[in-house]
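Lay summary. Proteins are chains of building blocks that fold into shapes, and those shapes determine what they do. In this project we predict the shape from the chain. Here is one chain we studied, written as its sequence of building blocks.
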Amino acid sequence: MTQVRAGRGESQGGQPSRDPQGEQPSQGEGVMAGGSSYLDLLQTPGALRFSAAAFVGRMPMSMFGLGIVLFISAGTGRYGLAGVVAAAGAVGYAICAPLVAALTDRLGQRRVLRPQTAVFAGSTVAFLTCVQLHAPVWALLASGTAAGASMPSLGSMVRARWSALVTSSQLETAFALESVADEIIFVLGPALVTVLATGLFPAAGVTAAVLLCVTGTLLLAAQRGTEPAPRPRERRPPGRGLRARRLRLPAPGLITLAPLFLFLGAMFAAIDLSTVDFAQQHGHKPLAGIVLGTYALGSAIGGLWYGSRSWRVPLERRFAGTLCLTVAGVATFWAIPSLALLAVVIFFAGTGIAPTLMAGFGLIERQAPAGRRTEAMAWLSSTVSVGVAAGSAVAGKIIDFGGASRGYLFAAGCGVAACAVCLTGLQRLRVTAPAAAVPSADSGGVRATGR
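And here is the predicted shape, written in a compact code that computers can read:
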């Protein structure tokens, strides 16, 4: 993503920005200072329809894991088993999402999303059946992993549509809009799945998540007019030796951002669990959801403000700044004495989350070639999922041993690690040319035989 200083023809650093088709803009085109407003953006033909469909289809990302925990714990009384199954689904999603995204870049969203949705629905029905029939643990793990692995990753796909549809001067506002939508999802989703699973029947939360995902995904896939054109991979001459067997990353910044987003996922998971325990310690466990909702609300407001402004600071410096401010807020949680004060502090600490995520996705969008843009952004979503799964497991044990304050300290430690990765790898984030020198394993890339 490039943020315009004065007009469409100049991006950060004075380099020519590219239009959605990859061509150089003419110098005589009009100026849109500070990007465009959210209302102007949604008036782009087709934008409101695909953004709304993706919003509905993304609801399960805040509902599915919690729904699994509520469903399994209600039937078996085993929270440990429920957490393991939910984590297995998250890891399955993390592994498969980049692979599906790469296939989407080559074949198109519609050709991939429709069969993937059918697999997701079938896998989830199999999982629900296994739980109802009290199947063995291996069956719960297998079906839960399959369901998580086949869940469509619509966040990267809707951002790819924005990248192909709007100009670079509008793209930061578009990403801000989607980040705010994500935060709204994380405000509404947990409350909805909890009410359904506890008020109707235990499987209602997971069932609602599947129905929302299937509906939104099929509506998105049906919108052909805004779908990015498939970009088949160029055939390369056969290589020799080890280089031919190594996988090229879709963007060089992933070497920095992938581990960084993993630490962020672990930080978010630790904050969630610690807040639940903190509220329980103060005798108000039901208020934990409200406090976490306040965290997401702060993020949404921060994202709206960030996306509505024109920025002259380079994108990588904005990313580093908002990340450090977010972590600085988290570092205070362990010392807060009351739930009311925590709600206030967590709101202001949350205002940096959406800007940080928006800048991270923007850095990758700026670096990745159009033919691998969906795949590149899916890597970030996947590493967050892995971080959430790992962070939940570690933070849970820490909280059992030392309480919420130790859990918050663990969250702060993960945040500090993310800042360290950012500052040491900041040079890779300054690469601005799309697909420029995307590293192979010889220069720090990922081996095809690795993962």
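What the prediction tells us: The chain has a mean pLDDT of 76.
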